[in-house]
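Homework help thread (please don't just give me the answer)

Our assignment gives two proteins as sequence + structure token strings and asks us to describe the second one. The first is just a warm-up. Here they are:
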Amino acid sequence: MTRPIIAILRGVTPEEVLAVADAILQAGIEKIEVPLNSPSPLDSIEALAKAYDDQALIGAGTVLTPQEVAQVHQAGGRLVVSPNCDVEVIRATTAAGLESWPGIFTPSEALTALKAGATGLKLFPGDMVQPRGLKAMRAILPAGTQVYAVGGAQPDNFADWIAASADGFGLGSAIYKPGDTPQSVKQKARAIVAAFDAAW
């Protein structure tokens, strides 16, 4: 089962990234992003792409410029996630053949992102919008629009978000934070997968 969950490895280092990713994949999560404000992120993305490209969707988060899109593409990433809605970044991402998941907070941003060619939408920060905000926004989104809740979505409220029409989630510190061992990441990832499967 390919679950609509993106593991956000903010702060991961190239030295540990393969072990951490392996733990996440073993738990059943197959989408991994390394935010570009992590240590040597492109090295981590390149290592992940070489090791797991046939098993997982690998890419970058906190992508803010078209130049960074090009760097992610060159490193082998296939997923570009941003905290904001930047039309130039979205267009550069889709032109490179990568998945584009821009951050949106308002209906205007959502429709602007979709018009620019976004693959799906990252509702961020989710804890400021809450499930009821997504439910209200869904009325103006085109049918079939994929929306992942990020920043406020966690195992104990998956069901609330899913009931409000969330298609998936991005999870950061709930799955990894600097200093975590691969074993602790695996335990957290397994708990997340169990909660998701129960709610879905």
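The one we have to describe:
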Amino acid sequence: MPNLLVKPKAESGLVQEITPESAGWTYVGFALHKLKPGETVSGDTADREVCLVLVAGKAEVSVEHQGKTEAFGEIGERMTPFEGAPFAVYAPKVSHWTVTATTDLELAVCSAPGGEGFAPRLIAPGQHPQMTRGKATNTRYVTNIMPENDGAAQSLLVVEVITPGGHTSSYPPHKHDADNLPKESFLEETYYHRLNPAQGFAMQRVYTDDRSLDETMAVEDGDVTLVPKGYHPVAAIHGYDLYYLNVMAGPSRIWKFNNAKEHAWLFTGV
């Protein structure tokens, strides 16, 4: 199995690149680009669909699909992922997307197998308002970008979460590694982590019931963690807020998880 902790490979340009081949799985792809004003990145979706998430910064975005170009103009408003809500653009299969940075830009390219009948669209802030989840030191702030109930994609599920320093997240532990609907869905998952201040770190554990997979990782600013299966709780260290962007995909576009039985007693409002 590939290393579950993927470090940035550069400081600018293509910083992260996770493919199904590099991850050793089937569905999820993730890339992260850091661009200067005026720089452009583009791509063909081929048989996959893409969600372009402006993690930080502003850009002009367009998508060409079925002979028509949808130009969304300049989008974006936050300069860090810790302030404000995200802008994103969906590009269906067999389309070409182009992003030109108008400020320093941090662009996430989330991908999964595409389907027929979907169109390019802008996903603006407020379309899915931020939610508060949990209580006490398990409180975190969740913004769905592409949730399962929007009906506007074949495979992709995309969400971002801010976990305050000293809090836990993706906790109590849950898993979604069995294709056993309606009880549980199989979803591969990536976490793209950012820390504030940037010199901080957080902890993430990925493990299965039988402990055939059991890895605990110190994640730093810009790291990606892979979750091929198992439980995957996260802990933000005191003094450092944690942002992560989740990309999930599997054979069904449904997020149906099961919780670790030994921690079921924690589910009294957490």
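TA reply:
I won't write it for you, but here's a hint about the kind of observation we're looking for: Helices lie at 20-23.
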